Amino acid sequence: MPTSSDQPKTTPTTASVPPKHTTPDHGEDATLWTIHEERLVDDTRKLRLSVASVELPDGVKFEQWVLRMPKAAMTVVLNDAGDHVLMIWRHRWIMNQWTYELPGGYVDPAEDTEQAAAREVEEETGWRPRSITYLSRFQPLTGSADFENLLYISEGAEDTGASADINEAARVEWVPLAEVPRLIADNKIIGAAAQVALWQVLATRVSR
């Protein structure tokens, strides 16, 4: 009867190694675009619009529209159990679409971002966040705009009894957190800030 020493020996397999990347490293400085001029077109409280004369590293020149906007702050407000998120259901006329959104808005010049995040939650929903904790920040349109979005989370909120802002929401809902992936897949949550923040919160809970 064969013993273990009689069995054929096998060589352990390893994960395949991808081929070496052969594209030359140009270096960061060599890939910078040159901005020869930026001409102001319009400057309002919520938008600074200009046209930039740009030259690429290979010498190609063109003009590009540039948008600069104030910072915005959005908040994921969870209920005490941490399984529902406070969202507003509203119509976005530019896309002509109804969507769930997180409460949030522009940061006023005289306030810090945490204050703006808390203020926007209360103004838009009638709920006062119990805490404001930083999550992350991102830029939604890096190729043509400077529009920093700052994301926060609140663990719990207090009902102030005030009505939701009629200019901001048709209704305010506590949406089950477990339903968020389906709502995103069904195109019911279309905003970049809402998707980034909610996926971050969901990922954090899965990794616990």
Summary?
The protein has 208 residues and is an alpha+beta fold. It has helices spanning 113-125, 180-185, 192-206; strands at residues 34-43, 48-55, 61-68, 72-78, 84-92, 97-101, 104-106, 127-129, 133-138, 145-146, 149-155, 157-159, 171-176.
Structure description:
The structure is a single chain. The chain is of the alpha+beta class. It has two domains: 30-68, no CATH class; 72-206, Nucleoside Triphosphate Pyrophosphohydrolase (Alpha-Beta Complex), CATH 3.90.79.10. 16% of the residues lie in helices and 37% in strands. The chain has helices at 113-125, 180-185, 192-206, and strands spanning 34-43, 48-55, 61-68, 72-78, 84-92, 97-101, 104-106, 127-129, 133-138, 145-146, 149-155, 157-159, 171-176. Strands 1-2-3-10 form a four-stranded mixed β-sheet, with no helix packed on it. It has a four-stranded mixed β-sheet with strand order 7-4-11-9, with helices on both faces. The termini are far apart. The model has no long low-confidence stretch (mean pLDDT 91). Keywords: Hydrolase. It holds the Pfam family NUDIX. Residues 1-29 are annotated as: Disordered. One of its GO terms (molecular function) is hydrolase activity. InterPro entries: Nudix_hydrolase, NUDIX_hydrolase-like_dom_sf, NUDIX_hydrolase_CS, NUDIX_hydrolase_dom.
